[in-house]
Amino acid sequence: MRDRKLYRVGIPLxxxxxxxxxxxxxxxxxxxxxxxxGDIAQARGLSQADVTAALKTYVPTGKMDEYxxxxxxxxxxxxxxIGVPSMRxxxxxxxxxxxxxxxxxxxxxxxxxxxxxxxxxxxxxxxADTHHPALSETDGDYDGQYLFxxxxxxxxxAVIDLxxxxxxxxxxxxxxxxxHGGAFVTPNTEYVIExxxxxxxxxxxxxxxSEYEEKYRGAITFWKFDRDAxxxxxxxxxxxELPPYWQDxxxxxxxxxxxxAFLNSFCSEMATGGIESGNPPFEAGCSANDMDYLAIVNxxxxxEVAAQPGKTVQIQGRRVIPIQTAVEEGLLYFAPxxxxxxxxDVTPDGTQIIVSGKLDPHATIYSWEKIQQAIANQDFSGTxxxxxxxxxxxxxxxxxxxxxxxPLHTQFAGNGVAFTSLFLEPSVVKWNYEQMQVIxxxxxxxxxxxLAAAEGDTKSPDGNYLVSxxxxxxxxxxxxxxxLPQNFQLIDxxxxxxxxxxxxxxxxxxxxxxxxxxxxxxxxxxTYPEIGFDPRRMAPAEDPAMPGEERIxxxxxxxxxxxxxxRSHFTPEHIEVNQGDNVVIHLTNVEQALxxxxxxxxxxxxxxxxxxxxxxxxxxxxxxxxxxxxYYCTEFCSALxxxxxGYLLVKP
Length: 652
Ligand code: K7E
Ligand code: CUA
Description:
Layout: H1 11-24, H2 37-44, H3 48-57, E1 67-72, E2 79-84, E3 89-93, H4 109-117, E4 130-138, E5 141-151, E6 156-161, E7 166-172, E8 184-185, E9 191-195, H5 212-215, E10 218-226, E11 231-242, E12 246-252, E13 260-266, H6 282-285, E14 291-298, H7 299-307, E15 313-315, E16 318-321, H8 323-328, E17 332-338, E18 342-346, E19 352-356, E20 362-367, H9 368-376, E21 380-383, E22 389-391, H10 393-396, E23 397-402, E24 407-414, E25 417-422, E26 427-432, E27 437-443, E28 448-453, E29 465-470, E30 486-492, E31 499-506, E32 514-518, E33 533-534, E34 539-540, E35 551-555, E36 558-566, E37 569-571, E38 574-578, E39 582-589, E40 598-602, E41 607-611, E42 616-622, E43 627-632, E44 645-651
Parallel strand pairs: 11-16, 36-39, 38-44
Antiparallel strand pairs: 1-2, 1-32, 2-3, 4-5, 5-6, 6-7, 8-9, 9-10, 10-11, 12-13, 13-14, 14-17, 15-16, 18-19, 19-20, 20-23, 21-22, 24-25, 25-26, 26-27, 28-29, 29-30, 30-31, 33-34, 35-36, 36-37, 39-42, 40-41, 40-43, 43-44
Helix pairs in contact: 1-3
The protein binds sulfanyl-(tricuprio-$l^{4}-sulfanyl)copper and dinuclear copper ion.
Sulfanyl-(tricuprio-$l^{4}-sulfanyl)copper binds at residues 131-132, 180, 249, 342, 408-409, 449-450, 512-513.
């Protein structure tokens, strides 16, 4: 209601005048309003809350955002980078999906090599259902070095280097049919955690659904991260076999719970659907039981077990710890968790784990200390069908708090304050998990999934900004057809009352999760460090074109072109080859000036490469069509940009 109170000229005027008079004083015609702040607000129907929201989000030209929000682009297959508090979209990083502006998958060999790592069963897969980005951490804090993101549909993890915001590696998980509980990192990015969602045989074979309990399995993969190399290391990666429940979300313990991971599951009913044959549909079969399980995994001990001979089995080239071994070695325990849970979030101090009910209005708060005691005392209420000990529920919880309808994901603000999304209300609820009290609810628009708080997954969240990642936007934006954008709503959570600040339409995919990092933690390269640099290897290129050494060399039926780009010409400007020749262009942008990017497109060849200052790329294609093909720069780089062109002449 306070949102809709009309702006009154009065107290806020002095505050707003400076900022707004400058910005608005020019507006005269075209339906714009002139006058002082009060007049403008009145004429535009802005409430006092609207004006304060505008002041809190407006970032004037030349000023920069305080935070960067790294968001999944959902089935857009990419990563979005958004400035906070302005909510301006700064970049769409090409990850699993070709992206022509960045030349991601349009001729630059390096980008094809990375995308090719993501092929599954020899099939190129050029889309992804990205869910959870994870910033690399050092000592439980985002360190601004790397970003990982999962693909739910085709179980994969991508590694993005935050020096140049480019994807460096894609790994596939052949054991899983789909994944969901990733990417989540351990406090020093020792491992990137990924968990299967829908169960399937781990060896990739066929098995009828009647053999579900025997043949189908879940899994949790601990991808070893080699920080120096900036790559996930498959040799040191290991997997723990899990029952064929559907794994949901993971989080890594920190502080006292360091070395452990928490992974909730649903559909422990092991329903196999088949509504068409008179079976309960999945939605009913998977929510029949009152309790599912939170898996509690000792990854530090598991890494040691995985290194011992005879303790693992090889499945599809991966080291897998069988369920039975995991139980015998004390690596895996279950805690009951109520009613189709969603989200498992470790508190900043690492002493508690919060799990939401999805079909239960409560969040359950598990105590790490009590879990440890229950494990030590073998305080079990039984085992599941696969022999995994189930901890006694009442012995390990600190309590349950009724939050509202459809609680999903929790983020933190420090001092015991948490925010949980309520999908069904739809609202964000602010509550205190130490005092077990609801503080405030704020309606959001609409159907919120994840929340992202400033530094929200670290050991010291900032407690000022929260973004609500809403699935439906309904009436929030000017209509753009039946497919509506998602709605990211920025919320100021610094004060005693939450204030909704800004609606940001997301017109690419359906983002799930995002993480927000203080921008000054990143150490971003402005240009590549030297001329002739290979961004995939993050090292000087092996055979780059260098200024003064441009040339065309024929090697059999391969024609190597050493080409440089600088405002406003390519050297050479003529390439003449014979039809059927294989053309290899070594292309270097020899600029060192900030933002002096050149493009390189070859007409009718599906080639468009972006070469940033210093970057060197290799472009390979077969000149299979005789004819004349201009190549030109696709970035408007200078006054003579249109003249930055050459001719590829292919002789029959
Ligand atoms: Cu809740 Cu994939 Cu994290 Cu979507 S998941 S919202
Ligand atoms: Cu270079 Cu346009």
